[in-house]
Amino acid sequence: MTGAGEPRAPGRPAPAAPAPGRRLAEQSGRTRVVLAEASRRDSRADRTRTELTQQTRVGEALVRGLVRAQLALALRMSLVVLIGLGGLPWLFAIAPAVGRVTVLGVNLPWLLLGLASFPFLIAVGWAYVRLAERNEQDFTDLVQRPEH
Amino acid sequence: MGNGFVVPAIVAVTLVTLGIGFYGLRLARTTSDFLVASRAISPSWNAAAIGGEYLSAASFLGIAGLILRYGVDVLWYPVGFAAGYLALLLFVAAPLRRSGAFTLPDFCELRLGSRRLRILATVFVIFIGWLYLVPQLQGAGLTLATVAGSPYPVGALLVAAVVTANVALGGMRAVTFVQAFQYWLKLTALAVPAIFLALQWQADARPAVTPPDGPAFRTATTVVVEHRAALTFPDGTTREVRPGDELTFAAGEPVPEVSGVATDAADWLLPSAAGDDDRGLFATYSLILATFLGTMGLPHVLVRFYTNPDGAAARRTTLVVLALVGVFYLLPTLYGVLGRIYTPQLLVSGQTDAVVVLLPGAALGDGTTGRLLAALVAAGAFAAFLSTSSGLLTSVAGVISTDVLGRGSVRGFRLATVLAGGVPAVLALNVSGLNVSQVVGLAFAVAASSFCPLLVLGIWWRGLTDLGAAAGVLVGGGAAAGAVLVTVLGPPLSGWPATLTAQPAAWTVPLAFTVMVVVSMATRRRAPADVGATMLRLHAPEALRL
Prior knowledge:
The complex is a heterodimer. By secondary structure, chain A is mostly helical. Chain A has six helices and two strands. Chain A has a two-stranded antiparallel sheet. Chain B has 23 helices and five strands. Chain B is mostly helical.
C-alpha cells in the first residue's frame, strides 16, 4: 500500500521545468523573472483547464486520451487475470494429470485456488493502482505543463 | 448443544453492535451523516467496514460447507468473491466515486439523465437487496438452532430486529464503525480456532483427509438427517432417508455414499474433468463470471464508495479491501477440509453449512478450550449476519426513502428502514428450505447481469443511451431474475435446463451487454448532450481541481 503522501512515479521529470529562468534569477539575484515565468505558466494551465471544462476540441481530445489510456490499462489487467485464473478450469479439464500433481502432499488445484490466487489478485490490484495513478499524473502534467 | 458459552457470546456481539450504534446516534445529525457518514471516514476504517459488510453468512459458513460437500470445484466461490473486488477496482471504483452520486439510481440519473431508468434501477436495488437479505436471516435462524437449540424463527427475527433498530437509529456513520469492528471479529473468530484445529490435527498424528477407503467416523456417532438423500452403504445396500431419520454409526465405520455429495475421494480432491460432464465446466465458468462481475453490482458494496474523500482514495480503499478479504478467504477452506476428518456426519445429515460452527467442538472435544472456541465461532457467525444485513438494509432503505417515499428526511429514512427490514423478515420465516450459498450466488448473478453492464458501459462508453441501458437491465437482469425465481420456486429440473437456471450468469451477462450496446447504437440520438462533461468529471484526477 502506498501512502497518500508518497511521491508518485520516481524517475519522472518534474512537471514544470523552469530551470533556466530560475538559474538566471539565482545568478543575478533578481526575482522578477521567476514571478513572471510562474504567472505565465499559471495562465497557460488555466487556459487548458478552461479548454477541458468548456469542452473545446482540445479539451475533448485530452479527456478521450485519458479515458482510453485508463480503459486500456484496466483491460490489460483483466486479461492477465483472465489467463492466469480463467484458464485454470479449462486446463484442469483438458489435462486432468495436472490436478494429480502434489506439492508437499497437497494437490496442485487446491494450492493454486485456495492459496496462490489471493496474493495473485492483490498483486494485480497493486500494479493497477500504481499504473492508473501514473496515467493520471501524466494527464495532470500535460494539462499543467507550460510548454503545452 | 449444552455449550454454556455460546449464548453469552452471541448476546455480547449483539450488545456491542447496538452499543456502537447508539454511540453513533450521538454523532449522526444530518441526513448526509445518515447516508454517507458525511464522507469523513479514513481509508483503513472504510476498507475494514467494506470487508466487514461483504463477508456474509455465505462467506463465513457457506463456503466451508460447500468445500466439505463438493471439494475443490467450489474453491471458485472464495476466489470469485475476492476477484470481484479486483473487477470493481479496475472498472468502477475511482470514476464512481468521482461521479458524486449517492446510490445506484443516482448514478443512472447523473449519467443518463433519465427518471424512468432511475425507477428501474430502484426496483433492481430492492430486488437484489432482499434476495441477499433473506439468506442472511435464514442463516441466523439455522445457526442459532444448531448451537443453542432455539426454534428457527428466533434467530431470524432477532437479527432482523437488531439490524433494523441499529440502522434506523444510527444510520451509516454508526454502521461504518460497527462494520469495521465486525471485520476484525470475523477474522479472529475463524483464525484463532483454525490455529487450534491445525495443532489438534498434528497431535492426532495427521489423519489423512482422503483416506483410501473413503471418509470414516472417528467416534461412535448418531446422525439426525436434515435433508432428504439416498445413502449407499459399503456392502452395497441402499437406503432412502428423510428429515428426522436417525442413523447410528460405530467408531471407524466408513461414511456411506450420499447422493449429491462428493463422498468419493477422487471426486472431492480433483477438479471435474472434460468429457464426462460439460455442464460442470459451464457451471464453473458461470460461477466465475457471476462472482467476478456481480460484486460491483451489489447495492451495499457500491454505497460504501461514496464515503471515500476522492477517487484516488476510493482506489486505495478497494485495494486494501481486496487484501483484507483475501486474507479472510484463506480460512474457510481449512474448515471444509478438516470437516472431512472430524465432522463426516454432516455429509449424511445434509447440514454441511454447520461445519464451521460444529468443527471446534468436534475436533477439540468437550473441554473448556473447545467450548470457548465454539462460542467464538458462533459469535463470528452472528457478526457476519449482523454486518451484511446492516449494509444491505442501509442501502435498500436509502433507496426506498429517496426514490419511493420521496423524502430526504431522517424520519423518512427511519420509516424506510422498517419497511426494508420487515419484508425480508417475513420472507425468511416462510422459506426455511433454501440453500444459503445458492441464493447468495443467484443474487450475484442478477447483479452481474443488470448493474455490472450499466456501470461498466456508463463509465467507459460515451455511446450509452437511456433506452439502451434500460433495455439491457430489463433483458439481462430480467432473465437472471427469472432464472432465480424458477430455481427457488419452480419445479425441480434436470440436465441442461437445471444448469442454465441454477448458474445463469454465463448467458445472462453477455446477453445484458449485447442488448445494451445494440439498443444504444440504434438510439444513438438519445445519447446525453453533456456526456463529455460527465466523462471529464468521472475520469479527471482531483489534482487538477477543475
